[in-house]
Each structure stands twice: as C-alpha cells, then as structure tokens.
Amino acid sequence: MLNLVGLYVSRIGFLGLWITLLTNSMTWKIETFNLSCNFFYGNLPRSLGNLSYLTYFYLHGKKFTGEIPSEIGNFMQLQYLDVSENELVGHIPAIQCTMENLFYLNWAGYRP
C-alpha cells in the first residue's frame, strides 16, 4: 500500500488515460486527489474504487465521458466531490446513502 496522502496534478498538462494507470491494481492510502484542468479523457475507470481513503476528489474540467462508476461508493470518508464540467452521462450512483461525511457535491454539466 502506498502511503501518499495527497496528489495534486492540477494544470500540469497531462494527456490521455493517465488516471487508469494511477488507480489500476494499486491500493492507495491517498486522501486528496486533484486532477483538475488537465487533458484526461475517456471513461472513469472502475479502479477508482481502490482509492477508498479519499476525502477530497476533484476532477473538474476534463473530458471524461460515460457513466460514473458505482465503485465511487467505496469512498466512505469522502467529504468533497467535484466531477463538474465533464461529458459524463447516464445514471448517477446512489452515493448519498453511503457517504455520511459528504458536504460538497458538484455534478454540474452531468446529463442523465
């Protein structure tokens, strides 16, 4: 398990499917994950569920597409979730029932 507490890669200019590499087949004890204002694209990977210690998850302003994976329900400690200004569509997972600490939620731009 990696004990990295926060990962801030906002406005660095990363391209592509890098988020899958970060979350795939790893168990992170990361609490803050900020990937805002880069050039990531594609579907959000189900491997996001590996980030179960998250309290702050910020994916604003990307080109992510598809549905939000139900695995984000694994974020039991999450307080802040922003997936706004992406190209996400479809069903929104029933996360409010499992995330008792959630106080900020931004789905702006999400299309059902």
Morphology: globular
Question: What is the CATH level 1 assignment?
Answer: Alpha Beta
How much helix is in the residues?
under 10%
The CATH superfamily name is Ribonuclease Inhibitor
As a percent range, the share of strand residues is: 25-35%
Spell the H/E element sequence. Answer: EEHEEEEEEE
Contiguous helical run count: 1
For the secondary structure, the number of strands is 9
* Subunit arrangement of the protein: single chain
Task: Name the CATH architecture.
Answer: Alpha-Beta Horseshoe
Distance linking N and C termini: 36 Å
Strand order of the largest sheet: 1-3-5-7-9
Largest sheet: 5 strands, parallel
Number of domains: 1
Any idea what the radius of gyration is? 13 Å
Average pLDDT confidence is: 76
Low-confidence stretches: none
Q: Pairing-aware structural class of the strands and helices?
A: mainly beta
* CATH fold field value: Leucine-rich repeat, LRR (right-handed beta-alpha superhelix)
